[in-house]
Amino acid sequence: MLNQRLSIDGNNCTVRYVGTDVPVWPDEEAIGVEWDDPARGKNNGSVKGTQLFECTQLGAGSFLKSASLAKKQVRYGTSFVEAVVERYASESRVDEIKIGTKMSQVLGFDNKGLENLTSINLANKGVSEAHETDSLPLARVVHLDLSFNLFTSFETVLQCLQTTPHVEWMSLNGNRFRVDAEGTPNSLFPSLTSLSLTNTLLSEKEVLLIIKHFPNLTHLVLAHNKTIKSIDLRDTRLQFLDLSYNNLHDLSHFHFPPSLTSLNLSQNRLENVTAETLPRSDSLTELDVSYNTLQWSDFDQLCIIYPSLTSLRINDNPFTKEDFSTNNLSVSPIDSQIIARWHKKLSTLNGRFVADQERSDSLIYFVNSVIQGKIDYPRDKGANKTHFDALVASLGISQAHATPRVTENFPTARQAFVKVTYTTRVDRGTSTTTQRLNKHSSVQKMKFGVLRNKGFSPLHSCTIVIDDIEVYDELKTLDFYGVTDSTKVDVLIQ
Which InterPro entries match (predicted)? Predict the structure, then answer.
């Protein structure tokens, strides 16, 4: 039973201890578990100074009497085959299928219905085994969600993929499986291009062992993995990498492939940016460094480190909250500075399009403010001098006489927001909430906010349904899914 994965009253955990040495229950058999959600824990695997097991996450441990498990809803896992049949097979007839070494009768196993499946969502269904069978015709499946399950080994995931060989997108979020260098088959799945490993607590070595099975991988999500402090991805074909929510102060031990074009570093603790702390990339065109601890000096370094950038999210950093006096610009002074200070043309800032008039207003405001000493900008040396001199030349001014032009009916940041009304359904009831959200924000960001508002961990399993269509790629924006003020959004918390 040790290291077995369980679901107790709907909460996944791993058994870390079995015995009779718990001081508060002498001679009684107890188990010690590490909860996937550390908020459920009560200790670090110790009782009254006696350390009985170690926790991967601080405070995620608990002890339970073995006898008390009989009073709880305990799930020991099911097979991938059984989970697919239970959720997707129609109730048209009774078939016999082979699960492991046994023949089982299954009600409603309709091959024709399964043949048409392109997406499978088995999130939080207690999947722990594969049990390969030719009775599952899943060759058309391209989206596979196996998040928050009870796998103990990545080898089991590879066995599941044998049944769905053409999967292009897969989520393994919230799992706690081990990855063995030896014993894991050398199976390759060239169709898979997008993989999400959010909150899996994997090490750098384990991540590299996983992605070697997917030679054409272009999108990788490693969010909420505070165990990863370095990784070398130079031998991959990645184009998109998500390292958000990892408590990173710098990336001096990270190495990116030359193919990388999009990088998400939001919700970290980045500061003191230099060419040594952030790996340079001439190919990067999209960067998200929102919700960090960056200052203007760090921003100027980003201009140099990522010279090809055209899309930037940098909101909610200390320097973006500075209090500037009001002006007649079509955008805020902070946005004006960001647009003007960037050494190349930004086409998108914080999820909204930067129009030509906005850029023109921003350049005039910035140059005038620097010349008049209202903005502290190191314009006398290096790349900044070259950039500022070019701005002055392009505007045809040599001193502070120009006045920013103002254009009426100019598209502002306000137009990037939509009023989203979503219905949240949980065991304890249904509620409806209306909230203004940036339409260029991801569905995942909206989901995290909803879960927090309802008192759940951001990593709790839930399903998003937009206009009666289940969302499978949460990294896409609300705008991608056509969300407007009248769109119906359902959040199903499991």
Answer: CAP-Gly_dom_sf (IPR036859), CAP-Gly_domain (IPR000938), Leu-rich_rpt (IPR001611), LRR_dom_sf (IPR032675)
Q: What are the structure tokens assigned to 90, written together?
A: 């129609």
What SS3 state is found at 455? Answer: coil
Question: Between the CA of residue 224 and those of 3, 171, 485, what are the distances in Å?
Answer: 22, 14, 31
State the Cα–Cα distance between residues 406 and 396, nearest whole angstrom. 19
Q: pLDDT at position 471, please?
A: 87
pTM of the model: 0.80
Q: What share of the chain is helix, strand, coil (3-state, %, to 5)?
A: 20, 25, 55
Assign a CATH topology to domain 4-75: SH3 type barrels. (2.30.30)
Question: What is 79-93+108-395's CATH number, 3.50.50.60, 3.80.10.10, 3.30.160.20, 3.40.640.10?
Answer: 3.80.10.10
Task: Please report, for the chain, how many H helices and E strands are present, in that order.
Answer: 9, 29
Which residue stretches of the chain have pLDDT < 50? 92-94, 105-110, 324-328, 399-414
pLDDT of 412 reads 42
252: nearest Cα among 267, 234, 230, 225: 230
Query: Per DSSP, what are the bridge partners of residue 64?
Result: 31
Sorted by where each begins, the domain ranges of the chain are 4-75, 79-93+108-395, 417-493
What does the chain come to in residues?
494
- What pLDDT score does 53 carry? 94
- pLDDT tens-digit map of 439-486: 777 888 788 888 878 888 777 888 899 988 888 888 788 888 888 888
The rounded distance, in Å, linking the Cα atoms of 278 and 309 is: 15
- Asked if residues 157 and 129 have their Cβ atoms less than 8 Å apart, the reply is no
Element (H, E) at 13: strand 11-19
Two structure tokens written together for 306: 């990522």
Return the pLDDT at 398: 58
256: exposed, middle or buried (Cβ count in 10 Å: 0-12, 13-18, 19+): buried
Helix (H) or strand (E) holding 33: strand 30-35
CA angle 379, 382, 383 (to 5 degrees): 80
CATH class label, 417-493: alpha beta
pLDDT at 400: 43
Handedness of CA 38, 39, 41, 42 (dihedral sign): positive
